[in-house]
Automatic annotation (TrEMBL):
Source species of the chain: marine metagenome
Pfam families: Lactamase_B
Protein name: Metallo-beta-lactamase domain-containing protein
InterPro entries the record matches: Metallo-B-lactamas, RibonucZ/Hydroxyglut_hydro, WalJ/YycJ-like
Domain Metallo-beta-lactamase residues, every copy: 13-80
């Protein structure tokens, strides 16, 4: 399996990293506005609708700012722990896939993560 990691931005104004494999694309955090996330993805030739999942590390705004609008616009699967999901006002049943610390989660056919 080939794994390509692209940092879309990191700092107090926002954080996002794209993981790409042969079978999927996953954002780790979505800390920029929805439009800014779309622009950053466009710069590297990635269609936002091709993102399979967003994995949120925690609820701070510089990691989650664009998650709600990105999910709404593109139908992207959202993964977060229960606390992050609840603090952001997401419905943990219909809008989030809940994970626990040190629980392996399969996010694409060829990529699992251990948050």
């Amino acid at each position: 399996m080939t794994l390509e990691i692209t940092h879309l931005g990191s700092g107090s104004r926002g954080n996002a990293t794209l993981l790409q494999t042969e079978e999927g694309k996953v954002l780790i955090d979505c800390g920029f506005s929805g439009r800014q996330m779309e622009r950053r993805l466009a710069r590297i030739g990635v269609d936002p609708k091709s993102i399979d999942a967003i994995l949120l590390s925690h609820h701070h705004s510089d990691h989650v700012q664009g998650a709600r609008i990105f999910q709404k616009r593109h139908g992207t699967e959202l993964y977060a722990n229960f606390t992050t999901c609840a603090q952001l006002g997401f419905d943990p049943v219909n809008q989030c896939r809940i994970f626990e610390a040190l629980e392996r989660v399969q996010v694409t056919p060829d990529l699992s993560v251990l948050p």
